[in-house]
Amino acid sequence: MAIVAAVLVVVTLVAMTSGRVPAVLALIVALLVAGVIGIATPAQLFAGLSNSGVITIAAMLVIAKGVLSTGVVSRVTFRLLSTATSPTRMLVRLIPPVGLISSLINTTPIVAMLIPATKEVQQRAGIPARSVLLPVAHATTLAGSTTLIGTSSNLIIAGFAASAGVNLSMFSFVPIALPVALVGWLAVILLSRRLLKGRPRHKERALTWRAEIPVSGKAVGIGRTATQIGMHKTAEFELIEIRRWGQPVALDSPIEGGDLMVYRATELGVRMLWASPRFGLAPLHLFAVTIGTENPGSVRDLQDDEDLLVVAAETRHRFRDTPAEPGTVCYVSVASSAVLEKHEFVSLWQNVAGKAPQPGKTWLAMGILVGVIVAASFSLVDVALAAGCGATLMVLGGVLTPRSAVRALDWNILAIIAGSIGLGVIVVESGLAEHISDAILSLGSGNIPLMIAVLAVGTTVLTNCVTNAAAASILTPVALTIASSADLSPVLLLTLIGTCISFTFVNPYSHQSNLMVMEPGQYTTRTFVRFGVPITLICLVTVFLVAWPLVTYWG
């Protein structure tokens, strides 16, 4: 049965790696085949659907969405980078705080928030995003491995360990993962100077749109000038007027609540202005609408409906002086598309952005996150229960709407994680885990350093070929078997695996963050290999030097 299971696992991994078959489909087929031939029961194979690790991951996705919806990451990022003058200084300022956040919530939305921030710095200061995005993506991945909730693979490892009677706490991964993360951060900073050189490619874009952005009374930019908050001029927009009580004021005047910020912008610039948390915009959606009927009035007349606000139009004139001709495209903010359905002048519309960031909820969102971390760290409640309560409070506290919370759940990722847990069940129930561990023990012949090296290299190779969830599910049972047979600490061996699973530096398809920065940073697969191989080697040497004495003397 072990041979059949090995063939099934290898075929599944190859299918997932090839990209020709959706990973979820490959995993489902594998679980069904395993059930039909009797490797494990259906309850065992599909236990991932109710696994506490999967539940925790789902809840943490909601919590992360709540924190990021306040715009706190972009505000902190601007303050860190507003005076940066080189890629190295930018990385030195950015990596530690972003790394700290990455150890507490899912790294993917953090990277998503950093992409526009680095592009903004590229436009303002000429620092190429190419020199920053990939190092930051790798740094967040390394930081995520330092805590139980920082990455999904650690939660999967903890779930398997709990079923074997091994308890992993919030900071069980720190002794090995933290030193490796610090060395890895230093490596990405130093190597990026030599291997990721480049100049930003600017395309001259005409600022043909006029955007009028109202400032809320609770906006974080109040009391500072547009220049001080980084909203004066970039390649995508330029402030041309500030109107206060209908009258223009100097562009260097401190911003007040009720001001109207008028910009010339590109279409992308309109969306960037909308997404900024510095103006405290109302929690409405941004829609691109097309005027479809003859209307003798102006674009401003669209606002006759009090539930609609015109944000931008392709014009150099005031909205009241811009004819609302059929085919004219405008950006408007409304609570829902229902307002547009009944609007007499609107024929087509498209939701182009979610709700504007709501900085007023920042302290509540951060308080919920801290509460979850404290409860889980001191074992006040189970980590899954703590995360679930935190996600619920995000909704009850008004940080997220119920619909936004549901949208925060990435069902594809959750399905892959649940299916990967079933793949681990196949490895255990078929006896394949014992055969692999026996081979490693035989190869090591009692030599602890050699066993550590084999586990570290094997984990690194596997995680760069398949998803980190699959690597965790396959290797955790192997590590538990080795720990039992060689009388070593299972916690340290699992920590070793959890740390090495974060070494997804070579293959751009091995981690979601890699794919996210690939196009904005203008990277190729060759770039990943050239930059990732030396970082991987440095991290492997570091993890070996850290784990060897720990496993030898405290194992």
From TrEMBL:
Membrane-topology annotation of the record: Multi-pass membrane protein
GO cellular component annotations of the record: plasma membrane
Membrane-traversing stretches: 27-47, 54-74, 94-115, 168-191, 363-396, 408-428, 448-471, 491-510, 531-551
Superkingdom of the organism of origin: Bacteria
Annotated compartments: Membrane
Keywords recorded for this protein, A-Z: Membrane, Repeat, Transmembrane, Transmembrane helix, Transport
Biological processes per GO annotation: transmembrane transport
Primary location class: membrane
Keyword Acetylation attached: no
Domain Citrate transporter-like, chain residue ranges per copy: 16-472
GTP-binding keyword on record: no
Cited PANTHER family: BASIC AMINO ACID ANTIPORTER YFCC-RELATED
This protein's name: Citrate transporter-like domain-containing protein
